[in-house]
Write a structure and sequence with these properties.
single chain, alpha/beta, 9 strands, disordered C terminus, binds S-adenosylmethionine, binds 6-(5-methyl-2-OXO-imidazolidin-4-yl)-hexanoic acid, binds iron/sulfur cluster
Length: about 375
């Protein structure tokens, strides 16, 4: 079984003082979370976050495309799909030593996890030995390893776990209802099956989606319900903002409102409080202020380095400056936190609990849950 030491633990009981981590979310209550006043939503997300994590620490990963372009899938957002002409140079699987050089330099820049992505429908059998070498090499450098290679068979998941792969990324991307508008070459059920194999093989699950595909708020809620109602929450939940790439069918998609994007992060955190929510693709297009709000809403993980897989990401120095301005990762390394910070050590939660005993205190969260109950009644 692969290492899970740095992954957050789920708390399923309230005896420790933590709120219960739920797996029974309904679409209507999640829609109600989205519709809260922004300040109430962010406050609730920040409380949930502080129950499990140090709010001033953000985990840092670096991405590398180990096999670029000519993908047989038709994901409408993706510059690497062979169905669209995006001018991307297609490349064969990168040599193992070259991958390890990139991993070394990612480590030197402060990354604690190295994520390798391949534009495959699924990993071809002939390439598996190289993939295994890459995992072992990255681990030997003292980095956590993550891969995203498309669909996996049960055997492939077991093989990757056996090589020590820490995380497997496979996104649901959107709601089951909207999914067919975006991808036709692989089903939602296929994706869920791969995620089940990853979980059964003992790896950490990294699964999330994209905001900005033309979906509505109900679809965002629907995707989060799928993730949060899994028997165990994904340890890592990447929320991507669509990067619009010329040549893809979504090149002219309507821009996402930054506040709506932050709402999605906040709702993900409230529903999966012990998971690391990753502020993923799209940061190059975001202001520092929207990113700061995303951290406030509970995002605690980013990709560092000037490239994602094929598109631009902020320069590492720009991120360092942003972290310094926000007091993030001061005196810490940039690794993922293992939950949990006990609530009694959380000054904001203590203040909130003390205020609740005051007769004049208006509890927005309680009245929200009353509203939800009323909506169900
Ligand atoms: N081919 C593999 C797969 O789809 O599972 C792995 C690589 S794929 C590029 C990984 C994820 O990147 C996708 O599931 C999608 O969520 C995200 N992604 C791809 N293109 C994107 C874009 N233009 N904007 C935002 N996210 C994107
Ligand atoms: C994820 O959810 N986002 C990352 C990672 N998982 C593999 C990928 C973002 C890709 C953005 C488009 C590109 O650079 O090609
Ligand atoms: Fe291929 Fe992954 Fe891009 Fe879809 S998202 S086209 S599967 S590389």
């Amino acid at each position: 079984m692969s290492n899970t030491s740095s992954a957050p633990a789920e708390n399923s009981s309230s005896s420790s003082g933590h709120s219960v981590v739920r797996h029974d979310w309904t679409l209507s209550e999640v829609e109600a979370l989205f519709q809260q006043p922004f300040n109430d939503l962010i406050f609730q997300a920040q409380l949930a976050h502080r129950e499990h994590f140090d709010p001033n620490q953000v985990q840092v990963s670096t991405l590398l495309s180990i096999k670029t372009g000519a993908c047989p899938e038709d994901c409408k957002y993706c510059p690497q799909s062979g169905h669209y002409n995006t001018g991307l140079e297609k490349e064969k699987l990168m040599e193992v030593q070259k991958v390890l050089e990139e991993a070394r330099s990612a480590k030197a820049s402060g990354a604690t996890r190295f994520c390798m992505g391949a534009a495959w429908k699924n990993p071809p059998a002939r390439d598996m030995p190289y993939i295994i070498e890459m995992i072992k090499g990255v681990k030997a450098l003292g980095l956590e390893s993550c891969m995203t290679l498309g669909m996996l068979s049960e055997e492939q998941a077991t093989e990757l776990a056996g090589a020590g792969l820490d995380y497997y990324n496979h996104n649901l991307d959107t709601s089951p209802e909207f999914y067919g508008n975006i991808i036709t070459t692989r089903t939602y059920a296929d994706r869920l099956k791969t995620l089940a194999f990853v979980r059964e093989a003992g790896m950490n699950v990294c699964s999330g989606g994209i905001v900005g595909l033309g979906e509505n708020e109900r679809d965002r809620a629907g995707m989060l319900v799928q993730l949060a109602n899994m028997p165990k929450h994904p340890e890592s939940v990447p929320i991507n903002m669509l990067v619009k790439v010329a040549g893809t069918p979504l090149a002219d998609a309507e821009a996402v409102d930054g506040i709506d994007f932050v709402r999605t992060i906040a709702v993900a955190k409230i529903m999966m409080p012990a998971s690391n929510v990753r502020l993923s693709a799209g940061r190059e297009q975001m202001s520092d202020e929207i990113q700061a709000l995303a951290f406030l809403a509970g995002a605690n993980s980013i990709f560092l380095g000037d490239k994602l897989l094929t598109t631009a990401n902020p320069e590492a120095n720009k991120d360092r400056q942003l972290f310094a301005r926000l007091g993030i990762n001061k005196g810490h390394d940039w690794g993922e936190q293992s939950a949990v910070q006990p609530p009694e050590q959380c000054p904001i939660k203590a203040m909130y609990d003390a205020e609740k005993s005051n007769d004049h205190y208006y509890d927005a969260m309680a009245s929200q849950s009353d509203r939800n109950m009323a909506g169900h009644g």
